[in-house]
Every structure is written in C-alpha cells, then in structure tokens.
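Illustration: Enoyl-CoA hydratase/isomerase family protein.
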Amino acid sequence: MTSLDTYRFVRLDGDVLRIAVATAGKGTSLDFDCVDEGTAALRALTAGEIRAGAVLLVGEGANFCAGGNVRDFASAPDRGAYVLDVAHRLHDFVRLLAATTVPVVAAVQGWAAGAGMSLVCAADIAIGGQSTKMRAAYPGVGLSPDGGMSFTLPRIVGTRKASELILTDAVVDADEAVRLGLLSRLVADDEVQTEALRVAAGLADGPTSSYASIKALLARSGDSSLSDQLDAEAASISAAAAGPTGREGVDAFVEKRRPDFRATR
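Result:
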C-alpha cells in the first residue's frame, strides 16, 4: 500500500482522500505542488494502492481556488510553453478525478474562479457557503478555459448559459450557483469544509460498487441513445443484484436492518 506520510497536501481522513488544491501561501491560486501530489494520490487510489471510499477537494485558505497564478504566467520566459506545461499537469489531475470510481466532493468556500471553477465542475457534489462566488475568469486575462470547463460546464448549465458565463466573465453568486446546478447546496460559510467532509465520509461508508456503477452510467448518458442507456442500466442493475453489495442491500431492506456495505468490500 502507498503511504501518504511524505505528502504535504494530501491525507486520509478516515476513508476520505482529502486533496488540497490551493494554499494561503500561494494566495489561494491553484498550487501545482498540490495538483502533482493529488495526481499521484489519485493514481495510487485507482491502482488500489490507497484505499478510500470518497475524494474531498478543499482549498487551504479563504478561497477554494482563485484560479491560476497569473503572476507566474507573466514571469515565465516562454509564456506559451509554461502555460502548456501547467495545463497538462492540471489535466492529468482532472482526468483522474473523472476516472475514479468513488464519489468526488468539493468544499467550495469563498471564490472558485478559473481553474478553481473547473475543478468544482469536475466534482460529483459541491458544497458551498453563503458567500461563495464563481467566475470563469479566463477572458478577463485574455485566455481560454482549461481544466475541462468547456466540456463540463455546458453539461451542467446548458450550452447557451455556459457560453454566456464564460464569454461575459460573469460573477455567479452562491444562490445562482445552486440554481444553475454548479453547487449542490449551501451551508454557513464556516461550515463548508465540515459539511463537505461529513458528506464525503457518509459516501465512503456506503455501497462503493453501487456508486461506481452510478458514476459510469451518468458518464455515458450524454453520448448515449435512450435505448442504449436502458440496455446499460439493465446490465448494470442485474450485475449489482447478483453481487455482494446488492445482495446485502436487498437482504437488509427485507430484514428491516441497516445494511453493512463495508462487509461486502
């Protein structure tokens, strides 16, 4: 098993893999020491070298993530080459977030701008606070999106609304973010990380194979016909019913007891 003892920005909170994506020391801009550690940890999770039932994305500071470090962009001798490198590193992380079979929860306090907003869109569940704000931020500095925003945002809010949000660089407040589906729900500002961890821990204690199947079905639904999706659902629920997790869940329901999904792993 892979040890996380040498990691600074990744740790296990029980069965939750907690990954910081931004730090106060970097002004809560996207921290690539965090990203690189997160990528390594997610690879280990996918390979079974780390055991976790959920992933939690957090920012260590006033904001979840205020976007890329534009000062670093400006000081690079070759700006194009520098941004290409950091985009590839971020995209390795996003690909692994998309590929992981466990639920991904984001604790979105303060600002989620630029790449920070992209990472919120990459999560399965996003918990925000009353003062949370989101902004594409790319056109404000003459850039185009990265982190998957041009893929995930239209699937969350629709193509027309995604175009408006990115092109006008609109600031989306917390209530509007919930209405659009960018955030799952809101809690008090000082409870965002606590509540997001509670949600992630609850998921980590649940039917992990069921979650994997749910995520796989949702991931393919955008490119699938209804008939093909129905076939995929039938195959998935049949396999679940025959497997240990489905058997435990159904038996527990019939026996009027709480299912012990941990025993089925």
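Reading the tokens back as a structure: The chain has eleven helices and nine strands.
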